[in-house]
Specification:
- The structure is a single chain.
- The chain is mainly β.
- Helices cover 9% and strands 50% of the residues.
- The strands form ten sheets. Strands 12-13-18-19 form a four-stranded antiparallel sheet, with no helix packed on it.
- The N and C termini lie far apart (71 Å).
């Protein structure tokens, strides 16, 4: 009887081990990273083949390109166009993306690069960008300068105003189009901050985009000042309350319309926006990082919680909050 029990126990143990080993082996067999097959290289993430993208190659110390079938592109130096198709909320889109292969097979990424006498900007995934700005850090000046790429990807160098239409999709698949103005100096560098042009004073964000019906921070070296601009991009200098309404259009194939966001700001007599806790006409308001009035604010130094009403005015303060 004892012998039979031992045999039974051993049999159960064997069955248990058979059940465990395949699961462990399955976990170890999930493809990960670079894998060579029939002389071609592929890249896997959690068992899935990566396509139409770039991944880091440690042996080349750079990012390598994968085509639409997932094969690493190891061709000659020069331009490579990758065609891809993707779907979003039932709609299908096709796209052609251009990359530039260096002699070692890696792509340019995150830089402006002069090719055949013309400058192109490649984002951090190696894609040549169109109708957008890209920064260059100036070591000597310790600042970033921004340049504008045209519809063909070539850097625009003509001085003056240039308009770009940006198309974006939100998390619900809603498509929106925004038109942005830039003003370029001679040589193509985009104006940032405050700039007087043809007798009018305009506000540009840190990337060179004209600020319209919105606000932006202006770098003053060791600190930032905030300013607001009207629908034409001109700085608002009139002291008092101002409502900034920003409108964009959307069209996702099933519905179209406009969406509007509103910011309520207060312009001081020096033209700068009010920030933090400020007393206006006998009432206190708090302007947070987004410049509009908040419903509550904790003064950590004084350990006081400030509460504000619908109009933004302070209603009461709770001391010794914690």
């Amino acid at each position: 009887m004892m012998r039979i029990n031992k045999i039974t126990a051993l049999a159960l143990t064997s069955v248990m081990m058979v059940g465990i080993i395949p699961a462990a082996a399955m976990a170890d067999s999930v493809k990960q990273g670079w894998i060579e097959k029939d002389g071609k290289w592929y890249y896997y993430e959690d068992g899935f083949k990566v396509r139409s993208s770039v991944r880091y190659c440690s042996d080349k110390d750079g990012k390598c390109l994968l085509d639409a079938s997932g094969v690493r592109v190891d061709g000659k130096k020069g331009w490579v166009t990758i065609k891809t198709q993707y779907s979003s909320y039932g709609d299908k889109y096709k796209a052609s993306v251009k990359y530039y292969l260096k002699s070692d097979g890696t792509v340019y990424n995150g830089v402006w690069k002069k090719i055949s006498g013309k400058y192109y900007f490649f984002d951090y995934n190696g894609k040549m960008v169109k109708n957008t700005t890209g920064g260059v850090y100036d070591i000597d000046l310790g600042t970033s300068r921004y340049y504008l790429a045209g519809s063909d990807g070539v850097r625009i160098t003509k001085k003056g105003w240039h308009k770009v239409s940006y198309v974006k999709y939100d998390s619900f698949g809603k498509k929106s189009t925004t038109k942005v103005w830039y003003y370029l100096k001679s040589g193509g560098e985009a104006v940032t901050g405050i700039k007087k042009i043809s007798g009018k004073t305009y506000l540009f964000d840190r990337y060179g985009a004209l600020v319209q019906n919105n606000y932006a921070a202006v770098d003053k070296g060791s600190y930032y000042d905030f300013y607001a601009a009207d629908k034409n991009g001109e700085i608002i200098t009139k002291k008092g309350w101002h409502k900034l309404k920003y409108t964009s259009t959307y069209d996702n194939g099933r519905a179209k319309g406009t969406s509007t966001s509103t910011h309520k700001v207060y312009v001081n007599k020096d033209g700068k926006l009010a920030t933090g806790l400020k007393k206006i006409d006998g009432k206190y308001y708090y302007f947070g990082p987004l410049m509009y009035c908040q419903q509550s604010w904790l003064d950590q130094e004084k350990n006081e919680m400030h509460y504000f009403g619908k109009d933004g005015a302070q209603t009461y303060v709770v001391k010794d909050y914690n």
